[in-house]
Amino acid sequence: MTMTEQIPDLETFADKSLLIVDDDTAFQQRLARAMEKRGFETETADGVREAVTKVGTQAPAFAIVDMRLEDGNGLDVIEAIRQRRPDCRAIILTGYGNIATAVTAVKLGAVDYLAKPADPDDILAALSRRPEDKAPPPENPMSADRVRWEHIQRVYELCDRNVSETARRLNMHRRTLQRILAKRAPR
Q1: What are the pLDDT digits (tens) for 142-152?
Q2: Which partner for 82 in 2, 34, 105, 109 could form a disulfide, CB atoms 3.0-4.6 Å apart?
Q3: Is the domain 3-128 a CATH 3.40.50.2300 member?
Q4: Which of 105, 10, 19 is nearest to 58 (CA)?
Q5: 161: alpha, beta or left, given left = phi > 0 and alpha = psi -120 to 50?
């Protein structure tokens, strides 16, 4: 699907208000500019508290929400949006994806769940896709090594960057974990 095929789908929506919630300011601003070029009227928020305040004032028609924010969880923003505007088309972006969180996001009303860094065209496709349409499989899925590395990083973060606790939970030798953490992320 090309961008020109997607834009007419977006044109069917009268309200093009979009809330982008991400604590990575550089990514947030790049994404806001890209989405404005694609026809959205964007608002940004750096965290859960600011996003919930903006939703309380004016609930958007679309939302792009990062899962992990400095002051909480992006799912709280999705829930606040659903309470104020059930027809909002929201997607979750995350660098720490797992099936349980994806299921929770969808149950709370997110229409899609994308891995960071997500391409603006992929985000546009997710936001404008009809509910009955299935998402196409990724052209370049993560390698098994990358998936393993992402999982280790997620557990490491959940253990507050404690190597010993992470190694215990992963049933891995501490030194092996230290070597993995010292290396760059696989492609």
Answers
A1: 778 877 887 88
A2: 109
A3: yes
A4: 19
A5: left
Find tokens 């899962």 and name the residue.
67
Topology annotation, domain 144-182: Arc Repressor Mutant, subunit A (1.10.10)
Residue with tokens 């769940």: 113
For residues 10 and 38, the answer to whether their CB atoms sit within 8 Å is yes
Single pTM value for the model: 0.68
Give the 3-state secondary structure of residue 149. helix
Secondary structure (DSSP) of 73-93: EHHHHHHHHHHH-TT-EEEEE
pLDDT in the model for residue 104: 75
CB–CB of 28/46 below 8 Å?
Answer: yes
Is residue 186 a contact partner of residue 161, using CB atoms and an 8 Å limit? no
